[in-house]
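Customer escalation, tier 2.

The customer says the design service returned an amino acid string that "doesn't look like it belongs to this structure." They asked us to rerun it and document both sides in this ticket. The original structure tokens are below, unchanged.
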């Protein structure tokens, strides 16, 4: 079962699960997000989901961390069942920064709608469509979002949790045309905080991602001007954002 837990220094979360958990999430994210050429106005947000897929795939290839979890077996059960087996299961583990995770969680609301509309041929009826209600890919994505929500509920006060979930639900917010370079800026700002401030700023990061305030508009303008100057798509513009070589998770 997929598990999401906050990291020791609150820089982000660890996402853990067995090989089948990661494989199912990887496939669902790709199916729901669609091809790169689909929905071009969502391209930037789609790349953020693909980045998560990249880590999931490399974890399945053995290029990320692993943890061992109890599987319920013990000496008495093995004796009763006449078998010898491990008492722990191997869980694959990846890490994700809080601003990045929050943005991907929000973006997946849009991609579920787009995917559901494609499946049902009516974007306003996708939730009622019998195929979408039981769609495995949508269920996997919602399970991932639910795991994010469960982690937030464990760490935030009830009021902060309620406000954050309202922002993550994305009922009145879309990532269509979003200038995702702003996510990099928030990632950098979050990493510069100490442990205590990070904990208090998780809800603030969700607010900044969705309120499209002056800071966001400034980054959007910088990206647009650079794209015009160098005659390239805004998605190709890279800001001077520096991540530490080693993140103190």
């Amino acid at each position: 079962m997929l598990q999401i837990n906050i990291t020791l220094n609150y820089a982000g979360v660890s996402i853990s699960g067995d090989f089948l958990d990661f494989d199912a999430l990887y496939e669902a994210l790709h199916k729901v997000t669609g091809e790169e050429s689909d929905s071009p106005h969502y391209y930037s947000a789609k790349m953020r989901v693909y980045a998560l897929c990249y880590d999931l795939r490399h974890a399945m290839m053995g290029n990320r961390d692993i943890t061992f979890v109890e599987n319920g077996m013990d000496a008495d059960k093995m004796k009763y069942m006449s078998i010898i087996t491990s008492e722990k299961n191997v869980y694959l583990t990846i890490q994700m920064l809080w601003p990045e995770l929050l943005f991907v969680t929000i973006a997946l609301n849009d991609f579920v709608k787009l995917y559901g509309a494609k499946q049902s041929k009516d974007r306003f009826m996708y939730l009622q469509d019998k195929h979408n209600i039981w769609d495995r890919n949508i269920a996997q994505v919602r399970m991932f979002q639910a795991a994010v929500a469960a982690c937030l509920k464990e760490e935030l006060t009830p009021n902060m949790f309620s406000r954050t979930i309202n922002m993550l639900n994305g009922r009145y917010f879309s990532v269509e045309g979003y200038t995702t370079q702003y996510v990099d800026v928030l990632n950098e700002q979050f990493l510069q905080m100490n442990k205590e401030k990070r904990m208090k700023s998780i809800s603030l990061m969700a607010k900044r991602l969705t309120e499209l305030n002056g800071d966001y508009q400034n980054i959007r303008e910088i990206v647009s001007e650079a794209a015009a100057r160098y005659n390239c798509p805004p998605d190709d513009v890279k800001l001077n954002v520096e991540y530490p070589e080693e993140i103190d998770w």
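Tier 2 assessment: The sequence is consistent with the input. Strands lie at 3-6, 12-17, 65-70, 88-97. The CA atoms of residues 145 and 194 lie 26 Å apart. Sent an explanation to the customer and offered a walkthrough call.
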